[in-house]
Amino acid sequence: MKRIGYLGPAGTFAERAAITYAKRINLTRPAFYSYPSIPETMLAVLQDEVDECVVPVENSLEGSVNI
Q1: pLDDT in tens, 1-39
Q2: SS3 annotation, 6-40
Q3: CA 18 to CA 9: how far, in whole Å?
Q4: What is this structure's pTM?
């Protein structure tokens, strides 16, 4: 089972993007984990809590997303 982290909480665009990503690469039964910040989401990959992560790089209101 592939573990995918995303910038949470549940219901955000990042969660929707993670679900769409999993569908597009045909993952079967992925597990999704939310994290409260971009650094914590990326650190989860380095610490092997998740296999991959999805974080925003830009949004329609503020433009580029800075850590």
Answers
A1: 999 999 999 999 999 999 999 999 999 999 999 999 999
A2: EECCCCCHHHHHHHHHHHHCCCCCCEEEEECCHHH
A3: 12
A4: 0.84
Which two three-digit tokens encode residue 43? 């650190």
- Cβ(30)–Cβ(58) under 8 Å? no
Alpha-carbon span 2 to 16, nearest angstrom? 16
Q: How far is the C-alpha of 41 from the C-alpha of 58, rounded, in Å?
A: 16
Determine phi and psi for 5, rounding to 5 degrees.
-95, 150
Alpha-carbon gap, residue 4 to 10, rounded angstroms: 13
- Strand 58-59 relative to strand 52-54, pairing: unpaired
In contact, 65 and 56? CB cutoff 8 Å: yes
